[in-house]
Amino acid sequence: MVDILTLLKTSEMKWIITLITIDVLLGIIAALVKKDFRLGKVADFMFKPVLAYILGFGILMLIPTAIPSLAKISQFSYILVLLALTGSILNNLSRLGLKLPSYLKK
Fold this sequence. Notes:
This protein is mostly helical. It has one domain (4-104). Helices cover 76% and strands 0% of the residues. The chain contains 4 helices and no strands. The longest helix has 28 residues, at 39-66. The radius of gyration is 16 Å and the shape is elongated.
């Protein structure tokens, strides 16, 4: 059985947690600048997407231990999670006034 703390100590999980932290901080700063901050939104974000990213990816990391032929699934899901978090960070940066190219805003 894989230890949960071992899963949280992987470099992939550390990157996901780092990007989530950056995203949350930028989201809070953007909400404060726009005077749109509500604590309930932070709680909703922390509960739904954060748990989905961390627990979902943690479960997907366990799949290759049970079925080695599906090892690429965890790598593919890691890339998708990184892209989703990067998109959210870019969205928060644009809310702060950073001008982004139009192809990044889609």
